[in-house]
């Protein structure tokens, strides 16, 4: 018999009503107590005791008629039909990055390491504190929301989006691989659209004042950038040559 360290609810619900948690646990007492406490905290809870049924619920995510978008999973390991580790492996193999908290009586270090290695985000052993479980749920949901939220510092022009904090660029919604110098050039251009830069200014800002190479390297990097950004590099719409002066963006 697994015992739970339960604590009385001492405050009003603090969970977000839009946050949905899928509880996959085959022990009725534990499953019902977790669901009750999460609902008291304001979360919407779906619960199941069967691994196969859990997978069916997760496969329906994204179907607007189902309304089954889960924000995280509380996952037991010992489940009928499909065990928890296999559920975790399958979700990650399919590219599903929903936060997963494994809840298991298996407390050995090897079990915890295995659970995390197959893709779980957190691991809590039984018996457990309900306060700690709820706190970990809050942390996982909050962290996932932050990771998936658009960067406040992103720069966008027409079909180009630059994410400075992530050092990545998309063009027409597809990722583009830029070298560090190409990325810095594009970031500078997008920070000061319409401004005309001569070669020396670009050298000082990107390569540094102590650069001893040929300023023609700017032209080479501009050509490489155009090849990656423009539909027609010979007739660019993003990086424009201003004859006799330099380059401008847009």
TrEMBL record:
SUPFAM superfamilies xrefs: CheY-like
Q: Which residues carry this modification: 4-aspartylphosphate?
A: 76
Q: Which Pfam families match?
A: Response_reg, Trans_reg_C
Name assigned to this protein: Response regulator transcription factor
Q: Which organism is it from?
A: Cyanobacterium stanieri LEGE 03274
Coiled-coil spans are none
**Keyword Glycosyltransferase listed:** no
Q: Which UniProt keywords apply?
A: DNA-binding, Phosphoprotein, Two-component regulatory system
Superkingdom of this protein's organism:
Bacteria
- Pinpoint the Response regulatory domain residues: 20-141
What residue stretches are annotated with the OmpR/PhoB-type domain? 152-250
Residue ranges: DNA binding: 152-250
